[in-house]
Amino acid sequence: MCSPVTCRQCGKTTWTGCGQHVDAVKAKVPTDQWCGGHEQAAGRSIFPWLRR
């Protein structure tokens, strides 16, 4: 099940969970308050050893 969380980067609402219920979470949040995602900073991969 997915649930709303606050984006650490912009403070808007995003989601956490399995990904199958994102639409249900988005339906409860005003469009202007939804985080659209952010570019990942270069070199900040969670798996840096895979980029060899």
Write a structural description.
This protein has 52 residues and is mainly beta. The chain has a domain at 1-30. Helix content is 10%, strand content 15%. It is built from one helix and two strands; from the N terminus they run ββα. It is globular, with a radius of gyration of 14 Å.
Protein structure class: mainly beta
Q: How many individual β-strands?
A: 2
Determine the strand fraction and express it as a percent band: 15-25%
Mean pLDDT: 86
Write a brief caption for the model.
With 52 residues, this protein is mostly beta strands. It has one helix at residues 22-26, and strands at residues 3-6, 13-16.
Compile the SSE list and pairings.
Blueprint: E1 3-6, E2 13-16, H1 22-26
Antiparallel strand pairs: 1-2
Keywords:
52 residues; mainly beta; two-stranded antiparallel ribbon; 2 strands; 10% helix; globular
